[in-house]
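Below: protein 1.
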Amino acid sequence: MDSCRMVLHVDLLQDYCTAMKSSSDGWQPEENSLSGQLEQLARSGAIHPQDQAAFIAFTRLEHMRSAFRQAGGRPSLLYRRRAADGWRWNLMELVLDRDGRSAVLFVKDVHDALTAVQVREGRDTPEQQLYAQRAMEMAAILHSRFKTMNTVDVESGRCQFMDLTQPASAESIGDYGLFVQNAISSHVHPDDVGTFWKTLSLEHLRNTARGLDEDYKEEVCLYRRPDEGPVRWMEQRVIYSRQGERVAVHILGQDITREKCQEEARVRELEDRANIISSLSTLFFSTYYMDLEHDTFRPVTQLRHVGDLLGEVVQCSAALQIYANHFIHPEDRAEYLRVMNMQNLRQKLRWWQPYVAVEYRKLWEGEEPDSWEWVRATAVLALSDADDMPKTAVYVAQNMTDSQHKNGEAK
């Protein structure tokens, strides 16, 4: 994190952020829409005119939400930002959090690194220097993530392939069409050849580059290696970047087997959770996820008439009060609201007391006003912070009428 000029924790659902590391140039994110603020920053002249469109597109909330599903890796953008001494190259990279609802946005100043390689390569013209920056420097900066880079001249069909795990001199120049044919025959699983060809054929690269309307575009191809044994997943990320009248095409490759395994594990975990919730729905007629820090809730399963009454209400305290006023016996409301309120749940729920419960009489849908059934509501601790203070809880409600009747008969 020390090499970053700014680090932001981004809520991908609410479009707001928390600054984990502030920018030294004085720009600070505010409480409102992060993507809106970044668009304003771009249009204010802080971002180079040739990079503004790509910057705005990359930082839109919709793009950040979908980038991980499309790419399966860490989306990144190289752009120029205004500084006291002119324009400086910056690298922006998104890293998805484990919860899948948020991400960390890293911003690094990589201008000095780019300049150093430019000098080393000895490019003569400004166009050649910029071309070298886009090709060589993206590899130099991202070598810890990507393993290969192929720079393609779509007009001539020539390509420059580099193995980024080897010294900078370890590169080869050849015909891109032959490169693709060799990859298909030796390095791509037969079932994935169609996907590989659709994204990476010279014809596709050429047509996409010629028809590029924006300044920046990414396409991602995921495919399997044909090796025997455990499946190995590879990613080829095609980056189209407009540089004046021409469009540069760079293809960055990496092995994403570990990420795919982690993704599959997350999918299985979500499916398991969904199955558990589905199974519990036969036991509990209502289930809610409660955010005790922000006094909000999200229904998982709920009765239709309750959902109709609550409508767009998202504040948990208000929803509990509305529910009590409309569905709970007048003699039981005070006790219900004493137990099921934010302050009591924050005070009582701990790892050594993981739940609180209350029983009450509820008017069931479609029944007479004096027809009541017994319900047991339970709030179960789901997540605590480092100080053992509760952050989230799961609220479940179960019909206990038969149990109450059996207990009465036994007595």
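Below: protein 2.
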Amino acid sequence: MKYLLVTLVLCLFSGPLLSEESLEFDYNKDTLSDKWYAGPALVYDCEEMHWACVGVVDHKKCGNLRENALKIGKETLECAPSEIYEYRKECHEVMQRLINEASYPRVCLNPRVRGRFIGFR
């Protein structure tokens, strides 16, 4: 009987596993690195060679960095923005699939030098 009572009390006071607060974006809790904050937007960091689900602001920053690098003619680009998803979970699922493919995205290369890397994605 004590076991049942203790279990019931714990269930009542534990609350939901995912509260509304945990779904809120908090820059203090969601820092991925010095470079990126977590979010629902997928980018490939060409310098550190990894996928990341970042915030929409960082996704836009990545796009701007890419445009500037293309304008000045850099052969290797800093990053490649991909899709923006509604939820982080969707982004993480796509990111996991891309990681499992283990391929180097050719989008990190300036289009004028991509031809040298036939066979790469």
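Residues 15-22 have pLDDT under 50 and may be disordered.
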